[in-house]
Amino acid sequence: MLESEIPRQLLPDGGFADRSPETLLHAYRHVVMVVDALKAIDHPIPGVLLSAHDRMPPMLRFFRHGDGALALFHGGRECDRHTIAGLLARDETRGASFLHAPHSQYQRLNAVKSYAVMDCGPIPEGVYANTAHAGCLSFEFSAGPQRLIVNCGASKKWDGMLRATAAHSTVTLADTSMASILSPGFARGLIGARMMGGPQEVTSNRRETSHGWCIEARHDGYARRFGIVHERRLILSPDGAALTGGDTLRPRAMRKAGAVAFAVRFHVHPDVRVTSAQEVSEFAGAAAGRDAVLAAAAKVGVNVESLAGKNGYAFYSSLQQMSPSDKRVVVLYPTGDFSVGDATSRAVHILSQNKRGYFLMVEWDMHTSNVESGLKHVIEMDNTIRQTAQSVGKDTLIIFTADHSFDIRLLRGKRGDPLLSKTAPASGSPAAPKVAVGDSHSGEQVLAAAMGPGAKRVRGFIRNTDLFHIMMAAYGWEKAR
């Protein structure tokens, strides 16, 4: 029976006939169980079963977001990421995921740790339409482990609404679904809650542009009723930091389309807070320098300069305004362009006069989308560590670490090319950078290095919370562990 059912239900690219990622997961789990059982009794494994066992894992990887769980299409839920990882660990061939599933009819974009997947296919046929969704050209998008744009998923209680077009991140015309579920009655009782209608023609292609890989797709799901074809374009930048695109509603050839209301929906994941462009602008301005910070504080009734004076702090706009007698200082620069090395040495000079010792934390941002600025900050921090190590006494513990790691990748160019230059653009296109910095945090262990009392305890892989106890022991406030 398996030898006849597998070719009928499993598509050549490894997807399942109902186009649901969750169904594929359960089918693969059963295939793994059957293969294991046959191996346990030394029974020959049919070739069709082995072929399915090899084809399904790459398709599962195709549907995985950065959080390890599945995309939400055609009645599928996220499912448990640990179960998914455990099953994929059984894949001995370790088949790599691909970017286009021509038989399952999905397209995928990947760059650094960003991921987008688009439904580029029609409603499945026959019984497989009983759980289908009207979400053609909908997409999901994630950055690292965080889902950003999603579809609404599946629920028995809200089945009718969640299968409609409006529950998907795509375009809806006249607030109607591009396909409908069979109404309650004799037919539905006989064949189930089948999805009827929908697109008859769906096409998609992908191409590389100077702005990144691009997916272009179209469907005619609204053509019969409204005479309109929906076209969608998605482009993911090479560094994964920007997903752009556009939707076009085009009258079908030889038919005049009247005025039709439409809605473009992007369902934002519940964990994501959407911020308006105005709020972003105000936030960026507040972080830009002294005047903006003071103005932002004034909006909430705080006079920073007055507050600093009341608490015994001198208030300056540059390090050069400091006097040798200053003990407590706040410096707000007009911009972020200042010497971290100079600031550190002045802070050490003031704090080292305390005979009871001192604690100083120096933070310098190296994770920025401006590659040149980030690399410059790396050099500045390296020089600051060197000059500090040379100037402090042997009784001072210095620890260097980071709060996270991040990606920096060489995307293009030739050996010997300057890293910070850009490749020659194609006609009419902007120049493309050679180096890209990932916007999200990565999961590698970060460096922790030290010198001075207790430094020998900072080695190998340690927990970040151990650094607190090492510092406490250096103070003499806690016994060394």
Structural commentary:
With 481 residues, the chain is of the alpha+beta class. Among the domains are: 1-94, no CATH class; 105-274, Beta-galactosidase, Chain A, domain 5 (Distorted Sandwich), CATH 2.70.98.70; 275-338, no CATH class. 28% of the residues lie in helices and 21% in strands. The chain contains 13 helices and 22 strands. The chain has helices at 2-9, 21-40, 47-62, 81-88, 159-162, 186-191, 223-226, 277-286, 290-299, 304-310, 340-351, 371-391, 466-475; strands at residues 100-101, 106-111, 114-119, 139-143, 146-150, 171-173, 179-181, 195-197, 202-209, 212-219, 228-236, 243-251, 262-264, 267-268, 314-316, 329-331, 398-400, 405-410, 422-423, 432-433, 435-442, 449-451. The strands form 8 sheets. Strands 1-2-3-4-5-14 form a 6-stranded antiparallel β-sheet, with no helix packed on it. Strands 9-10-11-12 form a 4-stranded antiparallel β-sheet. It is elongated, with a radius of gyration of 29 Å. It starts with a helix and ends in a 6-residue tail after the last helix. 26% of the residues are buried. The mean pLDDT is 88.
Shape: elongated
- Class derived from helix and strand content: alpha+beta
Largest sheet: 6 strands, antiparallel
Radius of gyration: 29 Å
Helix share bin? 25-40%
Unreliable stretches: none
| DSSP summary: helix tally | 13
* CATH architecture descriptor name of the domain at 105-274: Distorted Sandwich
> Mean of the pLDDT scores?
88
N-end to C-end Cα span = 63 Å
Under CATH, the topology of the domain at 105-274 can be stated as Beta-galactosidase, Chain A, domain 5
Query: What order do the strands of the largest sheet run in, or round the barrel if closed?
Result: 1-2-3-4-5-14
What amount of the residues lies in strands?
A: 15-25%
Number of strands: 22
